[in-house]
């Protein structure tokens, strides 16, 4: 009986091996999808929030968390640096809320991005840092942020709606991805012409030294 069916068994085994081998070959030959998080991918889509001359020879890119105390302490120093270097310096801000450490950080980032949709990102940025201690200690920050929006002349109803919008969330996600690409781990992180300035007790002076050392292009 076995001899009778042996040819069929052999043919079946050969077909099975051929089919499996073909599938393996096809998967091996087929181009595999790739995921890239290169800086140019995100930067080309979203240049971040920029203050200063577009052709400035030095670019300072800050990754900040509006509820981060060191970011709040650095804020006035960066304002002074901007004023001192004038047209030589271009400043880029990116949201990097540390949500596990600061319970209102993400909502503050949403407030800044919602203000951006009405052309007043930097006004809200400054308002959040200048009043950081006030809203950081509040239980419910939404009414405070609505008041800030009113103070800087926003349409408050639109601002309130935009805070929960997909567009705002997407902007924050893009900043976070950019930070992850550059291996940002903490805030504030400051990068001058592509090089990170290490956070030390003399951080402001270190930033100035990095700017002074950067080529002017002239």
Structure description:
- The protein is α+β, with helices and mostly antiparallel strands.
- It folds into 2 domains: 1-33; 39-213, 3-Layer(aba) Sandwich (Glutaredoxin).
- Helices cover 56% and strands 11% of the residues.
- It is built from 10 helices and 5 strands, in the order ααββαβααααααββα.
- The chain has helices at 2-29, 39-45, 69-85, 105-116, 121-130, 132-136, 142-151, 156-162, 166-181, 203-213, and strands at residues 49-52, 58-64, 89-95, 189-192, 195-197.
- The chain has a 5-stranded mixed β-sheet with strand order 1-3-2-4-5, with helices on both faces.
- Helix 3 links the parallel strand 2 (58-64) and strand 3 (89-95).
- Helix 4 (105-116) packs antiparallel against helix 5 and helix 4 crosses helix 9.
- It is globular, with a radius of gyration of 26 Å.
- It starts with a helix and ends in a 5-residue tail after the last helix.
- What kind of assembly state do the chains in view correspond to? single chain
Mean pLDDT: 84
Can you write the helix and strand succession as a string?
HHEEHEHHHHHHEEH
Tally of helical segments = 10
Distance between the termini: 93 Å
CATH superfamily of the largest domain: Glutaredoxin
Q: Would you tell me the structural class of the helices and strands?
A: alpha+beta
Helix content: 55-70%
- Main beta-sheet annotation: 5 strands, mixed
Number of domains: 2
- If classified by CATH, what would the architecture of the largest domain be? 3-Layer(aba) Sandwich
- CATH-defined topology of the largest domain: Glutaredoxin
Tell me the overall shape. Answer: globular
The low-pLDDT segments are: 1-45
Measured on Cα atoms, how large is the radius of gyration? 26 Å
What is the tally of beta strands? 5
Strand order of the largest sheet: 1-3-2-4-5
What is the CATH C level class of the largest domain, in words?
Answer: Alpha Beta
Strand content: 5-15%
């Amino acid at each position: 009986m076995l001899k009778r069916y042996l040819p069929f068994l052999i043919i079946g085994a050969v077909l099975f091996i051929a089919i499996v081998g073909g599938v393996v070959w096809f998967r091996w030959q087929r181009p595999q999808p790739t995921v890239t998080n290169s800086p140019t991918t995100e930067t080309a889509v979203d240049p971040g929030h920029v203050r200063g001359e577009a052709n400035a020879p030095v670019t300072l890119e800050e990754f900040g968390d509006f509820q981060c105390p060191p970011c709040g302490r650095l804020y006035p120093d960066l304002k002074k640096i901007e004023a001192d270097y004038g047209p030589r310096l271009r400043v880029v801000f990116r949201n990097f809320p540390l949500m596990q450490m600061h319970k209102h950080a993400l909502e503050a980032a949403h407030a800044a991005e919602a203000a951006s949709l009405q052309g007043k990102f930097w006004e809200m940025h400054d308002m959040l840092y200048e009043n950081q201690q006030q809203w950081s200690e509040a239980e419910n920050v939404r009414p405070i942020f609505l008041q800030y929006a009113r103070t800087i002349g926003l349409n408050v109803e639109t601002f309130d709606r935009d805070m929960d919008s997909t567009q705002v969330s997407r902007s924050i996600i893009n900043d976070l991805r950019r930070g992850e690409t550059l291996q940002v781990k903490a805030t504030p992180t400051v990068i001058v012409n592509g090089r990170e300035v290490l956070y030390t007790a003399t951080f402001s002076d270190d930033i100035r030294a990095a700017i002074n050392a950067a080529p002017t292009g002239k």
